[in-house]
Write a structure and sequence with these properties.
By secondary structure, the chain is mainly beta. The protein contains 1 helix and 12 strands, in the order ββββββββββββα. Strand 5 and strand 6 form a beta hairpin. The N and C termini lie far apart (about 145 Å).
């Protein structure tokens, strides 16, 4: 959900009292919204280059963001300390912080969340006859506050005897995230949903045939003989033999 923060910028050195308080608001994300030029001039939903932009982060904090290539020199002051707004490093702003841009010094009065955005407009302080100017200024800030009672000390000097030490200035390393895309529109149909026909389930394929088995060669049985082995009997040699011849007896 896009949140909107209502705030008031108090010009610490206005040309007239009628231009001291400017009522404005900051939008969520980097959409065109509240911005300040290098001279401290307020821009609203303008595409012109700006020194810093005042936007609402996704964790619902008011931050001062300087885009890449934007002119420098913007400072955030809090409790006697200050930081210079660097490129792509948003600075979290609190109620009572002051911004310096060139010769302008602006004090922020953060009023809280509001439901609608509006164009910046000056809050004209009524001119009482017998009320001191300091009381008029306090009444002006109280009149434009949306939530809470705001202090209205002068911009030229810090309030004396601060009861509570102000927190340090929070500088972040990541730029504000853009707004998420809007959800799709709700679809309304004229006919009820129809159940799809049951799908025909194909039978499972047959299992693959088993691989061919090679024939198993059984070893021959063990032969057992009833008798021990017998030494063979020498057989007579029936082949004819040639007798040797002698001188006494001639050979036939």
């Amino acid at each position: 959900m896009s949140r909107i923060i209502a705030l008031c910028m108090e010009d610490c050195h206005p040309s007239t009292e009628a231009s001291r308080y400017l009522r404005c608001c900051a939008l969520t994300g980097l959409q065109p919204g509240l911005a300040l030029t290098a001279d401290g001039v307020v821009q609203w939903r303008s595409g012109a280059p700006a020194a810093v932009r005042l936007v609402v982060s996704l964790d619902e904090k008011l931050v001062c963001y300087r885009e890449e290539g934007a002119p420098g020199g913007t400072r955030v002051h809090r409790g006697g300390r200050f930081v210079e707004v660097e490129e792509l490093k948003p600075v979290v702003l609190l109620d009572g912080d002051e911004l310096t841009l060139g010769d302008r010094r602006l004090r922020l009065h953060v009023h809280g969340f509001t439901s609608t955005a509006h164009d910046p407009e000056f809050y004209v302080v009524p001119e009482p006859t017998s009320v001191p100017s300091g009381a008029v200024r306090a009444a002006a800030v109280a009149g434009i506050a949306v939530a809470g009672i705001l202090g209205a000390a002068g911009c030229d000097k810090p309030p004396p005897d601060k009861p509570v030490e102000k927190p340090p200035i929070d500088v972040r390393d990541q730029p504000p995230a853009p707004l998420p895309p809007p959800p799709p529109p709700m679809e309304v149909r004229d006919t009820p949903p129809v159940a799809p026909p049951p799908e025909e389930v194909a039978p499972p394929p047959p299992p693959p045939p088993p691989p061919p088995m090679e024939p198993v060669m059984l070893p021959p049985p063990i032969e057992m003989r009833p008798h021990p082995p017998v030494k063979p009997i020498p057989r007579p040699d029936d082949r004819p033999r040639t007798l040797p011849s002698t001188p006494e007896k001639p050979r036939p």
